[in-house]
Amino acid sequence: MMKKMLFISLLGIVSSTAWAQNCILPLWEEDPPNYRETGEVTIWDTSDIVRIRLVQKPDLAVFLPSAKNATGEAVVICPGGGYRILAYDWEGSDIARWFSARGIAAFVLKYRLPGARNNIVPHQSPLLDARRALRLVRYHAEAWNIDPEKVGVMGFSAGGHLASTVSTHFDEGDPGSTDPVDRISCRPDFSVLIYPVISFSGEFTHTGSRTALLGEDPGQELVKFYSNELQVNADTPPAILIHSYDDSGVPAENSLAYYQALRKYQVPAELHLYPYGGHGYSLAIGKGYLATWPDRVLDWIRYITEP
After folding, report:
1. Contacts for 3 with CB less than 8 Å, ≥ 6 apart
2. What is the CATH number of the domain that holds 145?
3. Which of 18, 118, 193, 255 places its Cα 20 to 30 Å from the Cα of 280?
4. Residue 239 contacts by C-beta under 8 Å, 6 or more apart in sequence?
5. pLDDT of residue 241
């Protein structure tokens, strides 16, 4: 209990800092779309890694490099957790700090999970939140030393499914909106997909993520909509995919299917299939050369965003 209270107190301190520094920013100042008040509360479990359940109000944790180190690139990070939890530090803030230390602005998305009763249509909330996060980063691009044409999305496992969903279901903004954030494009300039769930229709799908997002018996139209290898086209952003051959939780065929779809439409793509690692290894610290995967991603981001 003391650990939990301390963590919440620290978040409060971070939230009160100036916007030019690291902070936690709500995605919407008012209630988010597709939301109803139910009396539920967000649950934080800090027993080993930080796991978040029943997210009520989505937000964005901001990790900015110093202005002199900023490269102009930015990435919105979607932690995994099977659409049931968010592995918030393991696949979120730890990753964001790694990127920020290398000059890339990083943002951890605390997105709503479909199992919370506050969702009106459960499967819609994660995508709404991811779209808003990308718009919000671009809205603050000048203040945060970001090039608005170098804003990407990154996701792990089910967070990789969300990242690939916003990469295949984006829009250019609503020019008639009274909210200036909603007038901005939510198309990622690039995607970083780490052992991602991609397909909800193939035999290699992660059924736990599909059931959590869509329910026990979803219609075929909805299954196809969220099978992102089927949604790729020539406008889909470039992607790098990282997976392990021995991943028994989310088979590597997910990454292979997305990679092949990108190749079909001649979208630049890179795939690294490691011979070991299993599923859910975060930064892979202490795991031999698997721990070099973030360097491969950094090299690729620099390559894909260069003029």
Report:
1. 46, 47
2. 3.40.50.1820
3. 118
4. 164, 167, 190, 191, 192, 193, 258, 259, 262, 267, 269, 270
5. 98
